[in-house]
Amino acid sequence: MIVSKLFTQVIFVCFLMLTPSIISAQKNPAIISKQVTAVDSIEDEFDVNEMIMHHVKDAHEWHLWGSEHEGVSLHLPVILYDNGFKVFSASHFYHGLNVLDKDAKTGEKLSYLVGKGPAAGYALFHEKIYRLSEGKMHFKDGHPHNPMPLDLSITKNVTSLFFGAFLLLIIMFSMAKFYKKNGSVAPKGIAKFLEPLVLLVQDDIAKANIGEAKYKKYVPYLLTAFFFILLNNLLGMVPILPGGANLTGNISVTLFLALFTLLITVFSGNKNYWRHIFATPGVPIPILIIMVPIEIIGIFTKPIALMIRLFANVTAGHIIILALISLIFINKSIAWSALSVPMALFISILELLVAFLQAYLFTMLSALFIGAAVEEAHH
Fold first, then answer.
1. Could you tell me if 131 and 121 are in contact, meaning their C-beta atoms sit under 8 angstroms apart?
2. Alpha-carbon gap, residue 274 to 375, rounded angstroms
3. How many beta carbons lie within 10 A of that of residue 340, not counting itself?
4. What is the pLDDT of residue 37?
5. Dist. CA 252–CA 102, nearest whole Å
6. How many CB atoms lie within 10 A of CB 17?
7. Closest alpha carbon to 377 in 302, 297, 281
8. How far apart, in whole angstroms, are the C-alpha atoms of residue 363 and residue 225?
9. In order along the chain (379 residues), what is the average pLDDT of each group of 10 residues?
10. How large is the angle between the packed helices 48-56 and 285-330, nearest 10 degrees?
11. Which tens digit of pLDDT belongs to each residue from 273-312?
12. Would you say the C-alpha torsion 259, 261, 262, 263 has a positive or negative sign?
């Protein structure tokens, strides 16, 4: 009952924070006129790179539908620490003044959003928040030289992370509730769909790579990693859905997933594991001088490979689909849709396979690394 009340309170607070921000991207004609005037010299041409990066990278808003200035967006909470905490809606940036500026050295045209109201004194450039110096941004070689406050905002990827974790908890608890109530009877509903995947992770991944004696200790982590990656891979294919951001294509997320595997591997390592790293049996000492640094580097390169593989494969799929659709706008001909749309559809179907495959590979390799750390010496 206490947990239920606390959960209700948290949902209510989040609702109060987000509800005022679910608005049209721009309703005030005066502000629209001011923004258009400020950037009327920017070429109105289709920028493939900008479009793709806009869909792939993180943001402080969730654009749902419609054009940039007249569509509907969910503006997320901005939390800054700059001589104290400052909390406000991202709409104060996206509804602020769009300023066109030039690089001091190259003369390149750069635009950024100056915040209004609680966001006054800050600017948003490429989804990063900067403090204004002398009321403006200062660029050199295409990069801003303004100070940055500590940004703890609830961004699009953070929102997606919360939603994916919440949905995963609902699914897993529903499955656990079924088995607790019905025992070992034939599964029904969602349990019938998920049981083969659970057995896949338990028997074919954990038991096969860690060993029957010790695998049960690591099954909870491996199941969590597998279903978290799989669920967010699938959600990321439908960007308009809550949780539909490019979460597993964000290298910060894959970094922490790989970091958990590294920590579990290191702290689970037994004497046999560390002896093979620092004093491999039967290897002469002169060779050990070369091997030990390589083995130590290998401890870190394995999770780095996990991190990059998941990040690169998921992001690449999104980029290829967007690039194929962009052919229509680059060539300014609907006829190109006969080629680009079928190819994009094929890549989308291929991404369904990649969504499962990357979850499987991450979990299997994690189990393989853990298995090597807990393996007993063979005599």
1. yes
2. 11
3. 19
4. 38
5. 31
6. 15
7. 281
8. 7
9. 37 37 36 38 62 82 72 87 92 89 79 91 92 89 89 92 92 88 78 90 94 92 95 82 74 94 94 88 86 91 94 90 88 88 90 93 96 81
10. 120
11. 998 888 888 888 888 888 899 999 999 999 999 999 999 9
12. positive
How many other CB atoms are found less than 10 A from the CB of residue 65?
8
- Residue 69: both structure tokens together: 């200035």
Q: Among candidates 265, 329, 272, which has minimal Cα distance to 298?
A: 265
84, 96, 100: which is closest to 123 by C-alpha? 96
- pLDDT digit string (tens) for 230-283? 999 998 887 655 556 788 989 999 999 999 999 999 999 989 899 888 888 888
Residues in the chain, how many?
A: 379
Q: What is the 3-state secondary structure (H, E, C) of the chain?
A: CHHHHHHHHHHHHHHHHHHHHEEECCCCHHHHHHHHHHCCCCCCCCCHHHHHHHHHCCCCEEEEECCCCCCEEEECEEEEECCCEEEEECHHHHCCEEEEEECCCCCCEEEEEECCHHHCCEEEECCEEEECECCECCEECCEECCCCCEECCCCHHHHHHHHHHHHHHHHHHHHHHHHHHHCCCCCCCHHHHHHHHHHHHHHHHHHHHHCCCCHHHCHHHHHHHHHHHHHHHHHCCCCCCCCCCCCCCCHHHHHHHHHHHHHHHHHHCCHHHHHHHHCCCCCCHHHHHHHHHHHHHHHHHHHHHHHHHHHHHHHHHHHHHHHHHHHHHHCCCHHHHHHHHHHHHHHHHHHHHHHHHHHHHHHHHHHHHHHHHHCCCCC
The two structure tokens encoding residue 301: 């390169």
Residue type, 337: S
What sign for the dihedral angle of Cα 341, 347, 353, 357? negative
Distance CA 360, CA 225 (A): 9
What was the pLDDT predicted at 33? 36
Amino acid at 323: A
CA-CA distance, 119 to 61, in Å (whole number)? Answer: 15
Spatial neighbors of 96 by CB under 8 A, at least 6 apart, are 113, 114, 115, 116, 119, 124
